[in-house]
Amino acid sequence: MGARSLRQRLMRTKNVAEGDLTTQLKRCLTTFDITMLGVGHMIGAGIYVLTGAVIKNTTGPAIIGSFFLSGVAALLSALCYAEFGARFPKAGSAYTYAYVGCGELWAFIIGWNIVLEHMLGAAAIARSWSGYLDALMNGYISNATISTIGPLAEKGSLIGTYPDVVAVVVILVGAIFIAIGSKAATNFNTFFTVCNLAVISFVVMYGSTFIDFNNWQGMAPDGIHSRFMPYGVDGMLAGAASCFFAYVGFDGLATAGEEAKNPSKSIPHATYISMAIVSIAYILMSGILSLMLPFEAVHPHAAFADAFAFVGSPWAKYLVSVGSICGITTSLMGALFSLPRCVYAMADDGLIFGWWARINEKTQTPVNAVITFTFLTAIIALMFDVEALVDFLSIGTLLAYSIVSASLVILRYQPSAISAQEPHLMDNGGRLRVCIPGLSPIIDRMEPGYSVLYSLIFMIFCITSFGALLASKFHWTVFGSILLLLTIIGGIGSLLFIDMHYQNRQQLAFKVFLVPYLPAASLLINILMMTHLGVMTWIRLGIWMAIGFAIYLMYGLNHSKEEKAGAEKITKSSTYNSVIIASRITDNV
């Protein structure tokens, strides 16, 4: 097999009929079910565990600004997800979207990282659930386990200080509901989500009777910053980066696309409804918390329960604790729901072992995937200190969001059929709207959409270079300042050039507005966050990807459904043509 043939196979795209609703899974989920799934996945560990630590150590009361900024950033990605949900209502989330828009290699990279994201996320949430229960019992569970078995490792190491059996039990119980069926799982999730929302309403209404605006006024202990923003603007921006990951549950909505009754409408509607509910809840709860007590006194792990004890209302502490456990439970259910469906999508396409794609005839769920990856998640929760791997969760998420945004731009600027009756007649999608002297003749000789693709790649290069310069502080040098200015000019210029092209006129139930500017803003924010992650995060990613590539090259490359479909004709990938410019592929390869 030649290098050229290998590149063609790696970059082939998936052929999916837009609006295709055929599936082996049971279509039983309504918009309400999917909205509750998204709300439950997001409002859980994020609000109850993350908020206290961010207020105390990073932002102070300015956390409300952090949640607003991170909510806007998440919304940009969510809108891109919503359009893809309307285009291709298939399970797999960003994985399927990348497969359709960019090519098989990119899809595998995203899918493999999403699997890891959901495994580590579920393990971390299960440990949070166990830790919250342990705190309510004054450390009885951890102390009893350590005294019986002994400590496993020192605090702060990769291995946990003790084997968390409670976390394993919680994961197994959640997996049982997932395996029984989607409707049972979503009913279970909806019940706990409603309980959680009721407790959130209680926290906002009852907590507002204890607010003291003096906690937002005056000077911080350092005598430099205000009490509202004690860590300065940098602290608020750093808090936004942390708070961003409290919103990542929305990508789990797309994994329900293959089980939704009307996915082209349910996925977009559930996405922005759940985002609105979650954003309002985060801002209100964090604002009330920062007004109830000074930011220095906020408990970093059990913030809301401790706040009511602080103001002299201990009975409310226990009610809030029940809501916290309900919220963390719904986050766990969201992660456990999404995990086997991402595995199923990859296995069904043949990129990983097909045994995981088998559907149970009775429950119509991917039971094999549920069993295997529940076991792996339970092992992680039992043995590892998942807090040491939190950064590892973020990089896969940001990479997925970035590729989805890029894929959306690619698809918007490809020609589409004018009508179903005349599929051979194409619109002007991907062609220049204006005449550029000296450049228009060259672009006109290209296939429609290729000039947009090249510009998009150059814009991503400029954004990545911009982020690397900022992260390395090299921009403070004279040469670094010149490079920074060039990346800004190049990025803006490529974006404006993309906007000079016609978009296709394809009709969808939901379309993102202000394309290409909103997807470009999403790319900017996500890539900037990625470039500021630590070196160890990139090293761990490299190890995980090495394992994934070994599976893909030895198994997935030859068992892919597109490999079989390509026996007569290899699917052409625009991504391949953009990267390997020197090796142009024709439609008849």
Describe this structure in words.
- By secondary structure, the chain is mostly helical.
- Helices cover 65% and strands 0% of the residues.
- The protein has helices at residues 3-10, 31-42, 45-59, 63-87, 94-101, 104-136, 140-149, 165-180, 182-207, 232-244, 251-254, 263-292, 303-310, 314-348, 367-383, 390-412, 440-444, 450-472, 478-499, 517-531, 535-559, 561-565, 574-579.
- Helix 9 runs parallel beside helix 12.
- The longest helix is centred in the middle third of the chain and has 35 residues, at 314-348.
- The two termini are 14 Å apart.
- The model is unreliable at 568-589 (pLDDT under 50).
Q: Counting H and I runs of at least 4 residues, what is the number of helices?
A: 23
Helical content (DSSP H or I, runs of 4+) = 55-70%
Mean pLDDT: 80
Q: Tally the beta strands.
A: 0
Taking all Cα atoms into account, the compactness measure Rg is 25 Å
Write the layout of secondary structure elements.
Blueprint lengths: L2 H8 L20 H12 L2 H15 L3 H25 L6 H8 L2 H33 L3 H10 L15 H16 L1 H26 L24 H13 L6 H4 L8 H30 L10 H8 L3 H35 L18 H17 L6 H23 L27 H5 L5 H23 L5 H22 L17 H15 L3 H25 L1 H5 L8 H6 L10
Helix pairs in contact: 2-9, 2-12, 2-14, 3-10, 4-10, 4-12, 4-16, 4-20, 5-6, 5-16, 6-8, 6-14, 6-15, 6-16, 6-21, 8-9, 8-14, 8-15, 9-12, 9-14, 13-14, 14-15, 16-20, 16-21, 18-19, 18-20
